Amino acid sequence: MRAFDDATRRNIAEACAAFARLPEIAEPSALKRAAVVLALTESDDGGDTAFLLTRRASHLRAHRGQWALPGGRCDAGETPVAAALRELDEELALELSADAVLGLLDDYPTRSGYLITPVVVWAADSAAITPNPDEVASVHRIALDTIERDDAFDFTEIPESSRRVIRFHHQMSLIHAPTAALIYQFREVLVGRHTRVTDLEQPVFAWR
After folding, report:
1. Is 0.85 surpassed by the pTM of this model?
2. Is 20 exposed, middle or buried (0-12, 13-18, 19+ CB in 10 A)?
3. Is 105 buried (19+), middle (13-18) or exposed (0-12) by CB count in 10 A?
């Protein structure tokens, strides 16, 4: 159990600070920059620490109805941190300042042409979360204990790739990469392991 308090915030900030991100690629990339947020907040039961996971609206053109961390494409000249905070506000009406940022995880390249930067933030006051119906069908608080279970993640193979496909088991759903990969790396950071996830594969339906 990780209580939602200042001690947990300090511990997670220290874990993020101790994590050495992979170096950024020096040459220009053809991938479009994007950012997502691991927003830490109080769990539904109260007391425990959780992160926010959304279900994308069913009318969206891309990845409709899928589980996702809040986030999106970086605007021109926008840093990943700024984009992550902007998207969190636009999707969930949760406005945070840069002081809420605890750290960054590894950039994850997607099959659909994006380079995603995961930004870990502390959302101390999330009582007024309001999902934007244009983008979000629902928002869920996933207790950190959930992702620390031994059976929370598994790996499988697909004939289209030699890389392992990661899956996060949430309730009756299977959540795949990139979302599952980023959550998995965050789980590893929490326990002090420098586990890389850029080689973890996405299912074929996410390649577009």
Report:
1. yes
2. exposed
3. buried
